[in-house]
Write a structure and sequence with these properties.
By secondary structure, this protein is α/β, with parallel strands linked by helices. It is 61% helix and 9% strand. It contains 22 helices and 12 strands. The chain has helices at residues 18-27, 33-71, 79-88, 92-99, 111-160, 163-167, 171-213, 215-222, 224-262, 264-269, 273-299, 301-326, 331-372, 433-440, 463-468, 484-489, 497-506, 510-513, 533-546, 563-576, 612-618, 621-630; strands at 394-401, 410-417, 422-426, 448-453, 456-457, 470-473, 482-483, 523-524, 551-555, 581-585, 597-602, 605-610. The strands form 3 sheets. A 6-stranded mixed β-sheet has the order 6-9-10-3-11-12, sandwiched between helices. Helix 7 packs antiparallel against helix 9 (224-262), helix 12 runs antiparallel to helix 13 and helix 21 crosses helix 22 (621-630). It is elongated and about 135 Å long. The two termini are 44 Å apart. The chain crosses the membrane at residues 34-52, 113-134, 196-213, 219-236. It is found in: Cell membrane. It is a multi-pass membrane protein. This is ABC transporter ATP-binding protein.
């Protein structure tokens, strides 16, 4: 992060609070409580029908097995007589198995009963699938609606954050949270909520069926659960810090990419490709390391849980086979139980395999929540004050301000700027020139004192009301992808074509627009590379003129235009200055010679003020600046 002083700070690497962040993420589903209830009902019905199917399929297995065994027994005997005959022949194990079966000696498979069972199973499968599809459809709507609201909340939050936040945070880091992290949250919620809900209900339903069939085998199956939870918890704790580092590294890498490609021309001009590439490689390598460790360590969960599940399967198969042989369980029940045991471990394995995705998603969610929890700019007062006039009288009364508590910048400033005056603000870099304008616009709040606009404290006004009375042109031009007409009209939506053209003419945009094949319909690309820097600056000036403000603020607005255009813009500014207060921040003193008052700032204080000629006569700080620009080069010895 870049501080106002230019220093770079790295985002804090605090440990993630997994469960609180997960609960906060799930709480965002609250507006959809009714739909969530319907989803849970549908999921329950789907699980009930799915869980009932193996038990019924076990009955079909019993019908087939009973028929095959019954065909081997003498016809005409009862089951008890057949068992006694087997024991008399010394076939005690076979006799024990037959005693636990529902056989009719001499008869084969009951195909009618088997067909009825299979039809019933087919109906259950269809119902379970239908409810599962409807549940997934509704849940997807809920999840996507929740993520859409999260995006909307982040967008609204960005508009409520003070300028200080954007001055101290890299744009790439902000963009990473708004795009990458929210997309990761969306993917995580979409893929895990449905599976987690189904998994929990499935485990509960299957556990009930297993206890019904055989408490002994259920105990064996349940023994793997604590072991699976212990393995999952052990691995998750060690992988979570790497997921946090992964997304922090993603933000830093995005910030570097955005910065280096935005200034690609500068990088090329100064031959800094190797340095940029080295920084990229270092941050890319850091992302690779954290991403590899996060995925590798969390990826150990699934095979470990699968291993425990396979041990459980072997134990159930052995014990179940022994109970079938002893006649205490039917073959169909053992088959159903084995199927249940596989289904019982499957949700646990599934949840375990989702842990890496969940950890990554919750890490991203916490980064988004950190943005949502940032301190906002002070709310507008209610009721708000509104100046009765729109003259542009600005007064500074004992104003103090500092970016850092221990670094004073502006102390006890007093200033009166009368309507129609052109006030030039000059001074060395860091003197507080732009800060002065930021305070007028309430991009920053004063620490002490107050600023009045037409007699009203600007802190008592709404920001929209205050800024609607001002037009601002910065040194760094900003144009969006659209036509020249749209970019000019951005200053006042709903402006007519004649008003747009009039603003373009007075700012000398019209003269170069007429030379373009599509005129005002010429589309400016996102970077504005299809027009010159000076032409972009003129468009921003036209935008400010169209807004018809009572106060004009020009922060090095003519720095990108040529000398001839600069003179034209100065004439246009002079024409528009009637009944308007103008603040002009300039390093090139040639642009402010005709200012009514020139303020010379140094270390946050106004050290001199007066007209151009008066300040030269004083032979002070302004005269030193002036001579350094115009007289200095002539004194250089060759």
């Amino acid at each position: 992060m870049t501080t106002p002083g230019g220093a770079t700070a790295i985002p804090g690497k605090k440990a993630i609070n997994f469960l609180p962040s997960l609960r906060r993420l799930l709480r965002r589903l609250r507006p959809h409580r009714f739909q969530v209830g319907v989803v849970m009902l549908l999921a329950t019905l789907s699980v009930v029908f799915s869980v009932a199917s193996p038990k019924i399929m076990g009955h079909a297995t019993n019908i087939i097995f009973d028929g095959m065994i019954g065909r081997q027994l003498p016809e005409g005997l009862t089951k008890d007589q057949a068992v006694e005959a087997l024991r008399a022949e010394g076939q005690n194990t076979f006799a024990d198995m037959v005693s636990g079966m529902n056989v009719v000696p001499g008869s084969g498979i009951d195909w009618t009963a088997l067909g009825q069972v299979l039809v019933l199973v087919l109906v259950l499968f269809l119902l379970a699938s239908g409810f599962a599809w409807l549940q997934a459809y509704l849940l997807n709507n809920i999840v996507q609606g929740t993520v859409r609201q999260l995006r909307a909340d982040v967008e609204a939050k960005l508009h409520r954050l003070p300028l200080r936040y954007f001055d101290t945070t890299q744009r790439g880091e902000v963009l990473s949270r708004v795009t990458n992290d929210i997309d990761n949250v969306s993917q995580t919620v979409s893929q895990t909520v449905n599976q987690l809900l189904t998994a929990v209900l499935t485990v509960i339903g299957i556990l009930g069926m297993m206890l019904w069939i055989s408490p002994l085998l259920s105990l064996i199956a349940i023994l793997t659960v604590p072991a699976s939870i212990a393995v999952t918890t052990f691995v998750a704790k060690r992988s979570q810090k790497h997921f946090v580092a992964q997304w922090q590294s993603t933000g830093l890498l995005n910030a570097h990419i955005e910065e280096s490609y935005t200034g690609h021309d500068i990088v090329q001009a100064f031959g800094r490709q190797d340095a940029v590439r080295a920084t990229f490689d270092e941050r890319n390598g850091r992302l690779y390391d954290s991403g590899f460790k996060a995925q590798f360590i969390s990826g150990l969960i699934q095979p470990a849980v699968m291993f425990l599940g396979n041990l459980n399967y072997v134990a159930i198969a052995v014990v179940g086979g022994m109970r079938v042989a002893s006649g205490t369980m039917s073959l169909g029940d053992v088959q159903a139980f084995i199927q249940y045991s596989r289904q019982f471990t499957q949700p646990i394995t599934q949840v375990s395999s989702m842990m890496n995705l969940m950890q990554s998603g919750v890490a991203s969610a916490e980064r988004v929540f950190e943005l949502l929890d940032e301190d906002e700019q002070a709310p507008d007062p209610e009721p708000a004050a509104t100046p009765m006039t729109n003259r542009g009288l600005v007064e500074f009364q004992d104003v103090s301000f500092r970016y850092k508590e221990d670094t004073p910048l502006i102390d006890d400033m007093n200033l009166i700027v009368r309507p129609g005056q052109m006030i030039a603000i000059v001074g060395p870099t860091g003197a507080g020139k732009t800060t002065l304008v930021n305070l007028i616009m309430r991009f920053y709040e004063v620490d002490a004192g107050r600023i009045l606009l037409d007699g009203v404290d600007i802190s008592k006004m709404t920001r929209d009301d205050l800024r609607s009375r001002m037009g601002m042109v910065l040194q760094d031009t900003w144009l969006f992808g659209g036509t020249i007409r749209d970019n000019i009209a951005y200053g006042r939506p709903g402006a007519t074509e004649d008003e747009i053209v009039a603003a373009a003419r007075v700012s000398h945009v019209d003269r170069f627009v007429r030379t373009l094949p599509k005129g005002y319909d010429t589309v400016i690309d996102e970077e504005g590379n299809n027009i010159s820097a000076g032409e972009k600056q003129l468009i921003t000036i036209a935008r400010a003129f169209l807004s018809d403000p009572s106060i004009l603020i020009l922060d090095e607005a003519t720095s990108s235009v040529d000398t001839r255009t600069e003179v034209l813009v100065q004439h246009a500014t002079a024409a528009l200055r009637s009944d308007r207060t103008s603040f002009v921040i300039a390093h090139r003193l040639s642009t402010v010679r005709d200012a009514d008052v020139i303020l010379v700032m140094k270390d946050g204080s106004i050290v001199e003020q007066g007209s151009h000629s008066r300040l030269l006569e004083m032979d002070g700080a302004y005269a030193e600046l002036y001579h350094s620009q115009f007289a200095g080069p002539a004194q250089v010895q060759t």
